[in-house]
Design brief:
Blueprint: H1 2-31, H2 39-60, H3 64-73, H4 87-93, H5 96-123, H6 137-152, H7 165-175, H8 177-194, H9 197-217, H10 238-254, H11 256-263
């Protein structure tokens, strides 16, 4: 377990510093040929956006399903079941309890990444150095999108990951608890009705996106159900709506094989095993 964690930490540091150093030098080289008073603001803005994307991608790259499977049960879920490194497949291959823990880890890694960038922008002077008029919500919302990409193509696990439904859930939970509550309720209604996690996932993402449309264009309908109050609220603007659309579309794309099977009535019902005791299965 400790070897696994040390391996991830080493790769995390190497990738972060290599990418950040390369991008920083490239941008400085380009901007050195541009004249203007706002040059440093542009530089800080570009680096902040890149930093937010890197944070999102690296947090998303933590392979919860592979970590739980290999460390505690000696199983690589990518070789069994649906071969997907996600909580649902962990539930199928290992058991319901392990699947729930995996989903929770994927949700909270997304939440932590978004909140980290959010608080850096809100509670530090960094925003004063960015381009004037920049909607900073675009930065912390883009962190969630990068997290989804990292989850599906994790640099710590051979770029073979999950379908990002848990990341979508983490994004909604981090940004609007009312949408999260309504979305989870809708998800379980569909799941218990049809017994397909894939159908519930596709329907749930669409439902949450539809919830965001009215507040995006009608300020009076912005509910304000944030975690930290109006002073630290996350904007329910059209940028939020578009971010949800991008994430939902990404989840749908990742579920294309499931959609095809659903249309052909070939999608198997979701069934979870009973999770075995760790001490009998860990290697």
């Amino acid at each position: 377990m400790f070897v696994f964690i040390a391996h991830i930490k080493t790769r995390f540091q190497l990738i972060y510093y290599t990418i950040y150093s390369f991008i920083f030098k490239a941008i400085c080289s380009i901007l050195s040929h541009v004249k203007g008073v706002k040059i440093m603001a542009v530089l800080y803005t570009v680096l902040t956006i890149i930093g937010a994307l890197i944070i999102g991608y690296l947090f998303g790259s933590f392979p919860s399903a592979i970590f739980i499977g290999k460390v505690f049960y000696g199983v690589d879920v990518r070789t069994q079941g649906s071969h997907n490194a996600g909580g649902t497949n962990v539930g199928r291959v290992i058991g319901k309890k392990a699947g729930i823990i995996t989903i929770a880890l994927d949700v909270f890694k997304t939440l932590i990444a978004i909140w980290l960038v959010f608080f850096i922008l809100k509670l530090t002077p960094l925003v004063n150095y960015l381009v004037d008029g920049l909607p900073i919500e675009a930065i912390y919302y883009s962190t969630g999108i990068a997290c989804a990409i990292g989850h599906s193509f994790p640099c710590f696990a051979g770029f073979k990951g999950g379908k990002a439904m848990a990341v979508f859930s983490g994004f909604v939970l981090a940004t609007n608890w009312l949408f999260a509550l309504l979305g989870v309720t809708f998800f379980f209604i569909i799941f218990y009705w049809k017994k397909y996690v894939s159908l519930a996932s596709i329907s749930g993402t669409l439902f949450v996106f539809l919830l965001s449309i009215a507040p995006a264009f009608v300020p009076e309908m912005r509910f304000g159900y944030w975690w930290f109050g109006p002073g630290l609220g996350m904007a329910e603007t059209y940028i939020y709506m578009l971010s949800l659309l991008v994430l939902a579309s990404y989840v749908w794309i990742r579920h294309i094989p499931n959609i095809k099977r659903l249309i052909k009535h070939e999608e198997p019902h979701t069934k979870f095993k009973k999770t075995p005791k760790i001490e009998h299965n860990a290697k």
